[in-house]
Amino acid sequence: MLPNSTDVLVVGAGPIGLATAATLATRGINVTVVDQAEQGANTSRAAVVHAHTLEVLDRIGAAEPLAAQGIHAPRFTVRDRDRILVPVRFDNLPTRYPYALMVPQPVTEGVLHDRLVALGGRVLRPYQLVGLDRDGAGATATFADGAAVRVRYLVGADGMHSAVRRLAGIGFGEAGDEGESFTLADVRVDSDLPRDEVILFFSGAGMLVWAPIPGDDLVRIVAAVPTAPERPDRSFVQLLLDHRGPARRRSRIAEVVWGSRFRVHHRVADRFRVGPVLLAGDAGHVHSPAGGQGMNLGLQDAVALGEALAGVLTGGPEAALDEYAAARRPVAHEVVRFADRLTRLATAPAGLRAARNLTLRGLATVPAFRTNLAHRLSGLVYR
Fold it and tell me: Taking the model in full, what pTM does it have?
């Protein structure tokens, strides 16, 4: 049952909402988390947690239990079929987490949920936000069942189609295009490709991400396609891998364990704060999955926002919330630009591929280039 009032209401119980709430709970703040779904989703497209995100999650006691459940991938490579264009190593980075952690989003959500519960919090379901009235002292959130909750602050962690963002009247960039179409599949595969390496394949047909995930021979495949099937089957994924993946030693799909599709627009919200309303994660920014930055950026938002709110609610200056918004929005723009550049490189026209490959292989011989790319992919550049 919803309370009549709460210091902070977090709308959305995905990883971003859970991380925000856990950050607040570690500091003794009265926080309520709601979600419109009757139960949490057990499927997702996010599968990587980068080094800086683990550093941030360590501040709320979530990094170690999460790291224990995933594959530690110390390498990332950009390839054009069989040719390695850019090798990137994470294992020499200045961090306690010198790897990309390959772990499905439901596991990440489970760890964050357990942490919230251990701190005395819980998620209330199903509650659909339908109204929002702001005033000088906070806001009143109204739900589909008629319930109303008085809040000092409201956090929109409810994804790309955020009701919080819409009700707060915050714009979300250009809406004219249909966005990029992606297919996603978790597959069992017979392959010589390494189990401790994430690979971004460039090809004339488009990009393909190869990411090992926990489980016997399990790999996550993500590919940009003109039209994605609702549930990709084995033949569809095999064709993608044959046309975009390794050519000399063919990887064979044995089974599609789960598959889905999604569209992504490259957008950043016009503002991350309007009075008592604040945004985090996909409610504030969405972009291509190239580089695996989406959930990572959102989790970094979440802990930063939770810490800022906790500071204000324990007597700190209100300006900390403006500082959160001012700091996180430019980072979102930078990540969107980075993902867009990777996508454009991956889909270069046939006539430019040879020049692109030659340029990238040349840059890859420069240690500073590889180091900079490793810091950007790992998120350490945003420390």
Answer: 0.95
DSSP per-residue string spanning 110-164 = HHHHHHHHHTT--EE-S--EEEEEEETTEEEEEETTS-EEEEEEEEE-S-TT-HH
Q: Is 22 helix (H, G, I), strand (E, B) or coil?
A: helix
Distance CA 143, CA 126 (A): 10
Structure confidence by residue, pLDDT tens digits, 76-96: 999 999 999 999 999 999 999
CB atoms within 10 A of CB 324: 23
Give the chain's radius of gyration (CA, Å). Answer: 21
pLDDT digits (tens, 9 = 90+) for 245-290: 999 988 999 999 999 988 877 889 999 999 999 999 999 998 877 7
Q: What is the DSSP string of 271-307?
A: -SEETTEEE-GGGTEE---TTS-HHHHHHHHHHHHHH
Torsion on CA atoms 184, 187, 189, 194, rounded to nearest 10: 60
The residue to which tokens 């995905």 are assigned = 14
Please give the pLDDT value at position 65: 98
Count of residues making up the chain: 383
Say if strands 75-80 and 197-202 run parallel, antiparallel, or are unpaired. parallel
Please give, one letter per residue, the 3-state secondary structure of the chain.
Answer: CCCCEEEEEEECCCHHHHHHHHHHHHCCCCEEEECCCCCCCCCCCCCEECHHHHHHHHCCCCHHHHHCCCEEECEEEEEECCEEEEEEECCCCCCCCCCEEECCHHHHHHHHHHHHHHCCCCEECCCCEEEEEEECCEEEEEECCCCEEEEEEEEECCCCCCHHHHHCCCCCCCCCCCCEEEEEEEEEEECCCCCCEEEEEECCCCCEEEEECCCCCEEEEEEECCCCCCCCCHHHHHHHHHHHCCCCCCCEEEEEEEEEEEEECCEECCCCEECCEEECHHHCEECCCCCCCHHHHHHHHHHHHHHHHHHHHCCCCCHHHHHHHHHHHHHHHHHHHHHHHHHHHHCCCHHHHHHHHHHHHHHCCCHHHHHHHHHHHHCHHHC
Q: What is the Cα–Cα distance from 118 to 209, expressed in whole angstroms?
A: 35
Q: Provide the token pair at 207.
A: 């990009």
